[in-house]
Every structure is written in structure tokens, then in C-alpha cells.
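Severity: low
Component: inverse-folding endpoint
Summary: output formatting inconsistent between runs
Steps to reproduce: submit the following C-alpha cells with default settings.
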């Protein structure tokens, strides 16, 4: 790890500007999200996207996720998708990944060739401040593929290599993000996580009660 900054002791403006400097230079940064720490880069720098796959030893058939500062900006990536709009407004910010049709300006390298793009608005103020400064970032959990994600509670030695590491203690949640497919007429819960299927259904309300639970 080239540089480490502790968000609990480093002035916020200085920290965010250092993250932006590394990201805009094509580097990779590990910083805290709501469910785990994330390894992030600029989605327009495909060389940096390649480095995320290499640093995590992640198989190239597994897609990455786009993290965005706010709901309004997220919905710009899914214009006219009323399902995504309803789900986003009720569940985000929060530990939920929305799947939408991949916009043409998003590289297939990010989605591993899949026709869908996963997007998140994390329930973590520092992460959203970084995303607000840097713009949307490609993110994957900060761990080698197959290892448990780093949540600030031990396992620091398992972190992949990155140009900058932002420490902020334990994450807000201790579980995975749920995944909701918004490419259908009704939202489809592909994976429960920190939010259970029952809680997701309750938040979506009566108009979305045909949400389907996929059993794994």
C-alpha cells in the first residue's frame, strides 16, 4: 500500500482531494463503503479497471459495480426506467445494488460482457462525499477474489494492492448488499443481504408486491 490516510484524524477536505488526485491520475483507491471497504477507480480509465481485476485476482467474467453519489444522478443512467426510479427512491442510499440495462457509454469491460449494469448509492457519508467530488466510480469489494471482504474489523493483511488506502474503522453494516433486478416489469430480488426480502418488499409498498424472491 503506497499511502494510508485515516479519515478519523485527517481533515476531510484534504482527504477527499487526495482521493480525487489519485483517481484522476488513473490510480486505484480503497475507501470505506456501507457494507465493506471498496477498491475503486475512474470508469473512463479502462487501464485502471484492468488493474482492479488484477489486484483482486478477480475472474474477468465477474462484473464490477458503479457507485454514485445520489439517487438523481443514478437515475440518469436508467432514463425512463420507472421500476428503477421506484426502487431507488425507496431503498437508496442503502445496501442495495440495482441492475439496469447497461448504457452504451459504459464499457462492457466493466459489466464483464453482461447487458446489465449494477449501480449503488452507498449509505456512508464519506463514500458519498468522495463520489460527489470524483463522480461515479467503478467499485469492487476490497479483497482478493474468494476472500472475505474487509469491513474494518481485522484482516487488513488481506487487502489487495492499491495506490491509496482510506481507513475509517468498522463499516456501517456487516453483510452484503442486496441485489434487485430493475430490468423487468416488477423488481426481482436476486440476492438478499443486509436488507431481507421481507424488508425490501415492505419498503417498496403495495404497488410493488409482486416482487419475486429467488431462492438460492
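Observed output (run 2 of 3):
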Amino acid at each position: 500500500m503506497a499511502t494510508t490516510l485515516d479519515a478519523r484524524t485527517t481533515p476531510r477536505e484534504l482527504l477527499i482531494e487526495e482521493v480525487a488526485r489519485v483517481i484522476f491520475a488513473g490510480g486505484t483507491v480503497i475507501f470505506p463503503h456501507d457494507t465493506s471497504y471498496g477498491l475503486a477507480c475512474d470508469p473512463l480509465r479502462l487501464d485502471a479497471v484492468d488493474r482492479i481485476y488484477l489486484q483482486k485476482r478477480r475472474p474477468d467474467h465477474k462484473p464490477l459495480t458503479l457507485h454514485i453519489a445520489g439517487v438523481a444522478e443514478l437515475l440518469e443512467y436508467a432514463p425512463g426506467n420507472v421500476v428503477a426510479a421506484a426502487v431507488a427512491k425507496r431503498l437508496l442510499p442503502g445496501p442495495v445494488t440495482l441492475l439496469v440495462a447497461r448504457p452504451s457509454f459504459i464499457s462492457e469491460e466493466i459489466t464483464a460482457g453482461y447487458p446489465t449494469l449494477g449501480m449503488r448509492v452507498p449509505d456512508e457519508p464519506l463514500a458519498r462525499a468522495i463520489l460527489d467530488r470524483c463522480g461515479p466510480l467503478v467499485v469492487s469489494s476490497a479483497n482478493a477474489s474468494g476472500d472475505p471482504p474487509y469491513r474494518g474489523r481485522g484482516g487488513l493483511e488481506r487487502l489487495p494492492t492499491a495506490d491509496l488506502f482510506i481507513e475509517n474503522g468498522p463499516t456501517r453494516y456487516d453483510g452484503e448488499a442486496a441485489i434487485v433486478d430493475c430490468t423487468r416489469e416488477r423488481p426481482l430480488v436476486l440476492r438478499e443481504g443486509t436488507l431481507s426480502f421481507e424488508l425490501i418488499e415492505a419498503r417498496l409498498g403495495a404497488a410493488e408486491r409482486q416482487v419475486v424472491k429467488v431462492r438460492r
